[in-house]
Design brief:
The structure is a single chain. 34% of the residues lie in helices and 29% in strands. It has 293 residues and is an alpha+beta fold. It has two domains: 4-235, Hsp33 domain (3-Layer(bab) Sandwich), CATH 3.55.30; 241-290, CBS domain Like (Alpha-Beta Complex), CATH 3.90.1280. β6 (115-122) and β7 form a beta hairpin. α1 crosses α2 and α9 runs antiparallel to α10 (281-290). The protein is globular and about 70 Å long. It starts with a strand and ends with a helix. It binds zinc ion (ZN). Zinc ion is lined by residues 237, 239, 270, 272-273, 275.
């Protein structure tokens, strides 16, 4: 089954919701980056959030980037999503090994440590819109909830989950976001709160065979919801040799000359998908000829 996301509205448009299942794309990210279980969980949760935040974008060229930096061994996470909920991302240190936390769960908060979350929205304005918070727990869902409350004044309930199997493969992954618009009534809010209190973790629901449709029905079934969109979500990097060439050309002749004088082919790689691009000296010479002085 391919990964997908549901975008829905409820209670006369005073509530918006996103529910997504992301097992395959998290698996792809884990395979590309050779992540340990705790790194897979940290990256997978952030990619899942990225899918849902991508679905909030309006313009075709809009991008949203989640950038987490912490003093823990994982050091940081970078995830970018486009308006189709195509996501890409990486962790700074994919080889983190940590004991399980007190609840017997992968210790994402411990891996990230104390730090910041920045949300960078490239929405066609002259400057991107940037919001930043201090991390609450480093568990990501809680941090994003705080981000939406403080930076965007949108009360939200967010769940993000990644279940890693014994062989390090991704067994389940997904999440949801429920957001209250300013006209949400007290009654609506308390109905949602009650549902959230009795809800199991999102990965345990998937384990029981529940679908995003089932989860949406459970959460918002009493509030008159409608599904506005069902979309495929996936991990996709847009890097290419052509793009790397353009970046090299933009360095200018002086810098390229220095690289060529070293006399060695160079190896550049894309952080987002771990793909390597090598350039032999004669290729560099051709780029030099295309570059400005
Ligand atoms: Zn790439």
């Amino acid at each position: 089954m391919t990964d997908y996301l549901l975008r829905a509205t409820a209670a006369n448009h005073s509530v918006r919701a996103f529910v997504t299942q992301t097992k395959n794309l998290v698996q792809k990210a884990a395979s590309l980056h050779h992540t340990t279980p705790v790194a897979s969980a940290a990256l997978g949760r952030t990619l899942t959030a990225g899918c849902m935040m991508g679905a909030m974008l309006k313009g075709e060229k809009d991008l949203v980037t989640l950038h987490i930096k912490g003093d823990g061994p994982l050091k940081g996470i970078m995830v970018t999503a486009d308006h189709r909920s195509h996501v890409k991302g990486y962790v700074y240190n994919s080889q983190v090994e940590l004991p399980l936390n007190a609840m017997g769960k992968l210790d994402v908060g411990g891996a990230i440590g104390v730090g910041t979350l920045r949300v960078i929205q490239d929405i066609g304005l002259k400057e991107p819109y940037v919001g930043q918070i201090e991390l609450i727990s480093g568990e990501i869902a809680e941090d994003l909830t705080y981000y939406f409350a403080t930076s965007e004044q949108v009360p939200s309930a967010i769940a993000l989950g990644v279940l890693v199997d014994r062989d390090y493969s991704i067994r389940q992954a997904g999440g949801f976001m429920i957001q209250l618009m300013p006209d949400a009534t007290e009654e609506t809010i308390s109905m949602i709160e009650k549902k959230l209190q009795t809800l199991s973790s999102i990965t345990s629901l998937f384990e029981k065979g529940q679908t995003p449709e089932d989860i949406l029905q459970y959460l918002l079934g009493d509030l008159g919801y409608s599904i506005l969109e069902k979309r495929e979500v996936q991990f996709e990097c847009n890097c290419s040799k052509n793009r790397v060439e353009k970046a090299l050309i933009s360095l200018g002749q002086k810098e390229l000359e220095e690289i060529i004088e070293e006399g060695k082919e160079i190896d550049l790689y894309c952080h987002f998908c771990n793909k390597h691009y090598t350039f032999a000296i004669d290729e560099l010479q051709q780029l030099y000829n295309k570059a400005k002085k």
